[in-house]
Each structure stands twice: as structure tokens, then as C-alpha cells.
Amino acid sequence: MAQTASQAAQENQAESFRQQQAFQVAWLLLQIIGLWGLLDLRNVISSWPQVRTAIAAIIAEQSQVMGQLGNAYYLQARAAAGILALPPALSVPAAPSPQLIKATLDSTGPYSLLARIKQGRDVPEAAQVTGAIVGAAATRLIQNGARTAVLQAVQQDSAAVAWYRVTAADPCGFCAMLASRGPVFRTAQSAGFKAHSRCRCSAAACFSKQDAKALRDNDLYRQWKQVTRGYGGQDAIRVWRRYWDAKHPEAPGVMQPVA
Ligand SMILES: [Zn+2]
Fold it and tell me: How far, in Å, from the CA of 47 to the mean position of ligand 1?
């Protein structure tokens, strides 16, 4: 079925919203890794709190910036869908709690670094590896601001029918599977977005049953149907992962979802 002008406009908005997030995340990652680099590798534990405070401030602030981007995208997509009714007042999702930020940074940062060093890894190399992991965990929390904004808006707005996952060009098998399912309806019980560390997926909104149907008719879904024919539950997921990883050897590999 040919795409309507409105569907094409909404798709473009969803894609540019995803790219905006990717751009933000790329430079935030550089900033966070730069701050990590200020850690004194001879005094990891005593120099960590200052570094953590600086990274935590970026997470708290930038998750809100992402939330604003999410709301702005949502209103544009809504207009492109031809919804004339006034939108509900959208609030920016709350930043991750200070406790969550601290726990995330503590668990991925200094203690993992010390464990790697204890395993006999070269100190600068261990620091670099750990910094990349800290950055990935931090940017997941930041980007969740954008994802949550869209899910929250869909939930609040009676004109919205569903949200759906928009992946980067080369998603991991887990995200490809979720994206293949298309729209997640407002009424459906859902555990949320399920972004893993280094997940580049974005959330987008859908405003009609007809658009939802069109989104469901996607190439990933056809692949999923074909690959998992005759399999169910965990077996279906297993054959899908095997298929995906073989087809995309360069893809980030098996990812563990984080709710
Ligand atoms: Zn993803």
C-alpha cells in the first residue's frame, strides 16, 4: 500500500527526532568520557566523587533536554497526522533520581575499573574500557528522557493510539525483534521502552489505526514471521537471534535488555 503524504511526513519527523538524539548522545558521550578522564588512576576511590558529581549533573540536565526534544517532536508529529484538537499540556518527564544516577555510575565506574585492574589488565586500557561503559550507561539514562516523553505523551493524549520503536540502520537482534512488532497500543500493558546500553532506538507516536496497520506491514515483521515460523516463545527468540547475528555479523551482538 502506498504511503500517504501524512504518513511520509510523520515518518520523516520520527527519523529526524532519532537523528537529533543520536547527535546529542554523540557529543555528550565525548563530554562524559572527558570527565571520566579526570579520574586520578592512583587514587580512584578518593577522586571518584568529584567526577561522579560532574557526570551526574550532565545526566540530570540533559535527560530534561531530551524530554523537551521528545515533546517538541510529539507535537510536530501530531500536527502532521492532521489532529486538530488541542493537545494536552505535556510535561517534561522527571530526570532519573539522584539515587539511580549514583547507583548506575558507581556500578559501572570505579569498582568495575578496580576489578579489571585486579584481573591484571593494563591500567590505561582498563580505564578506557570502563570509561566507554560508564558513558554508555549515562547516555542510556539521558536518552530515556526522549523515549519517556513520547510514551508519556501517547498515554496522556486521547488522540494518540500507539507508540512504536524506530531503530538505527543496524540495530541489534533484540531491538530489531521489538521494532518488527510495530505499534504498541496505549491500552496494551507494556513494560516500557526497554532500552539497553548503547541502544540507539527512539520512540515515535502513531495517531490512527490505519497508520498503525501500515506500520505493522514492515519488512522486519515479514522477516520475523518467516524466520520464526513453527517456533514459539523463547525458541522463536532464539532462532531469530541466530538468524540476525548471522545476517549482521557487524551488529552489536546479543544485548541484554534493561527495563
Ligand atoms: Zn535499540
Answer: 33
> Is it the case that residue 164 has pLDDT exceeding 90?
yes
Give the percent of the chain with pLDDT over 90: 81
Ligand 1 center from residue 173 Cα (angstroms) = 9
- The C-alpha torsion from 206 through 207 and 208 to 213, rounded to 10°, is 0
233's grid cell: 516463545
Distance 118 CA to ligand 1 centre (A): 32
Q: What is the pLDDT of residues 229-249, one digit of tens each?
A: 999 999 999 999 999 989 887
Is the overall model pTM greater than 0.85, yes or no? yes
DSSP-derived letter for residue 95 is P
Q: Per-residue confidence at 132, pLDDT binned at 50, 70, 90?
A: very high
Residues 6+ apart with CB under 8 A from 70: 17, 93, 145, 146, 147, 148, 149, 150, 153, 203
Distance in Å, CA 128 to ligand 1 centroid: 23
Residues having C-beta closer than 5 Å to ion ligand 1: 175, 199, 201
- Please tell me the distance between residue 253's alpha carbon and the centre of ligand 1 in angstroms: 11
What does DSSP assign to residue 162?
Answer: E
By C-alpha distance, which of 201, 197, 96, 99 is closest to 139? Answer: 197
User: Ligand 1: distance of its center to the CA of 81 in Å?
Assistant: 25
Give the DSSP H or E segment for 67.
helix 44-80
